[in-house]
Amino acid sequence: MSATQANEEQQQSNALPMIIVAGLFFILGFATWLNGSLMPYLQQILQLSPFEASLILFSFYIAVTFTALPSAAVIRKVGYKTGMALGMATMMVAGLLFIPAAKTQIFALFLFAQLVMGTGITLLQTAVNPYVVRIGPEESAAARISIMGILNKGAGVIAPMVFTALILSGFQEVGGELTQVQIDEMANSLVMPYLGMAIFLGLLALAVKKSPLPELESEADSDESKEEDHSGHLKEALSHPNLALGVVALFFYVAAEVIAGDTIGTFALSLGVENYTMMTSYTMGCMVAGYILGIVLIPRVISQQKALIISAVIGLLLTAGVVFGDNQSFAIANTFLGGVELPDTLVLIAFLGFANAIVWPAVFPLALSGMGKLTSVGSALLIMGISGGAFGPMFWSLTSTATSLAEQGGYLVLFPCYLFILFYAVKGCKMKRWH
Known about the structure:
The protein is mostly helical. The chain has helices spanning 3-33, 35-45, 50-78, 80-104, 107-134, 141-168, 180-188, 191-210, 223-227, 230-238, 241-262, 264-270, 279-297, 304-324, 331-336, 344-356, 359-368, 375-384, 388-402, 414-426. It has a single domain, classed as MFS general substrate transporter like domains (Growth Hormone, Chain: A). The protein has 20 helices and no strands.
């Protein structure tokens, strides 16, 4: 058999698994970016302060901190495919928990449902990300992750539209006091969509479990790894600076990504913008454009490292525009969005999606480079970086309260995020040992 034929057969054998994994990335994106619509919606229903509203995101993303490493242990025990199915089953349970939360309008129940949803997504993420890296050549991993990112963020464009169509339709109140009848109607509108989501996720979990998805070799298959304890794996993984600093870079990146994607609706609500639940779609649309541009330009025109540097610099410039911009100006929207009535500051927040797009697909393979048998532990540590999504909006809300600019001033917290990403792009990703 020639090398060309062998390569073609390998590509064909990888095609179906990649299609399945692509579908899972879409599900991940849909479930994750619903938060951008859910946060301001619950803020209205439950009459929450900005800090209380940030807890909706905190409870979702903080699950990563507690469940990422246990997720790696579960995957080593049951395998990657079963881990994916268990992740979706957990997400199904979370969808069901939204029903009593909506019926009782108890804030703590919504937070618990968000915590369970975050746990399920963490398990699914920990299983599916190494699949993308290891199912093909390492040198093309960034391209595969970029394609998956397009699907993930594409789902982020669609999710707010679906939320608005299924849940917000018929409710035109923006800000102000709601009557109890209006609150009850808005809360009850959550029941059927989340029930449908739960049923779909349950069926999908069964389908993945029965699918022909091949199992990847894990550390549990190695005799050497059986002799090493979990703490030994963790210590060895953290001895790689490119991984450890990559975790921090992803922490700041996800904080910036979630602030741009999920607080834009709350900011729009404070400015009296109608259809505020749609705002996340604009940020996600810019992220999709950034992913596509990255696939076209990297590495043909610019290197991965230079792309990271450019992304960080653009993020810093856009942040300055958001913080010091005029909420009464519509010039950018009139120029780029065909006359859509959106303040310049909101449009600049959406443009942050473009700056954020290349960071994850660049950092993840760079951080996992050379990890070998520690790939799943390294992946779990990187997934823990998603916990930045818990703290970013919280610091945004606290900064909003502390500044005279209110929600607009909260975006000051993006400056340190992009500065660290710039450091990782310039130096951190090159470090192979601690000095």
